[in-house]
Amino acid sequence: MNIETVMTPRLLAISESVPQGAKVADVGTDHGYIPIYLCLKNKIESALAMDLRPGPLNRAEENITRYGLEDKIKTRLSNGLLELSKGEADTAVIAGMGGLLIAEILEAAPFELSCYVLQPMTATAELRQYLEENGYQICREVLAKEEEKIYTVMTVRRGKMKVTDPVYYQVGESLMKSRDPLVPDLIDSLLRKYTTACDGLLKSDREETKEKEKQYSLLIESLQGLKKECQTW
């Protein structure tokens, strides 16, 4: 099996965000495709494929053997980064899970690494806020599209970060600065999400619901402003 055939746009965006020459800990490795691809492309020195469940780890081991990469990729049963030892990795890939779980994995990590490549499936805004409040800096963001779903991939290091407007929790400011071509699609999907949510809240008379509806209305207005900015690119 050619590894290129299983590398989706999301997996490629994650792989391209990994620093050259890194020693990688791939958290939630599943099939092990990311470390396999990175090794075959000679982009990384070594990898540790980690997963919480034996089933995915067994699949990863089978694929690692299929590609003859047993010397470069090791596997380990681990809850997040808890079973990682110092010196085994300098970069963690934490992808394909919710943003809140990614934050929990970072919070529980036994020590810091120099780089994190994060790809949340949900709660992207909440993850950005966690990073801001806990001494992390988003150095780079890219988007990937599969069917109608837009995925955000963040390259994160220790450092100070200040989100200047609440809308940038939803759409990373670096994505706007780099004029990522998928930003308009991301904004459209967020507008659909919050417009639907806002319409549902309008049917309620509860005071806390009215406050939430006000927040969503302001967010929708800000997203529409970003959409207009994109039209000038």
Keywords for this entry:
single chain, elongated, 233 residues, 23% strand, 7 strands, 7-stranded mixed beta sheet, alpha/beta
Describe the structure in brief:
The chain is an alpha/beta fold and 233 residues long. It has helices at 9-16, 33-40, 54-66, 99-108, 124-133, 167-170, 173-178, 183-201, 207-230; strands at 22-27, 44-51, 73-77, 91-97, 115-120, 136-146, 149-158. The protein is built from nine helices and seven strands.
Write a structural description.
By secondary structure, the chain is α/β, with parallel strands linked by helices. 44% of the residues lie in helices and 23% in strands. The chain is built from nine helices and seven strands, in the order H-E-H-E-H-E-E-H-E-H-E-E-H-H-H-H. The protein has a seven-stranded mixed β-sheet with strand order 3-2-1-4-5-7-6, with helices on both faces. Helix 1 (9-16) crosses helix 2 (33-40) and helix 8 runs antiparallel to helix 9. The longest helix is centred in the C-terminal third of the chain and has 24 residues, at 207-230. The mean pLDDT is 95.
Chain-wise SSE layout:
Elements: H1 9-16, E1 22-27, H2 33-40, E2 44-51, H3 54-66, E3 73-77, E4 91-97, H4 99-108, E5 115-120, H5 124-133, E6 136-146, E7 149-158, H6 167-170, H7 173-178, H8 183-201, H9 207-230
Parallel strand pairs: 1-2, 1-4, 2-3, 4-5
Antiparallel strand pairs: 5-7, 6-7
Helix pairs in contact: 1-2, 4-5, 8-9
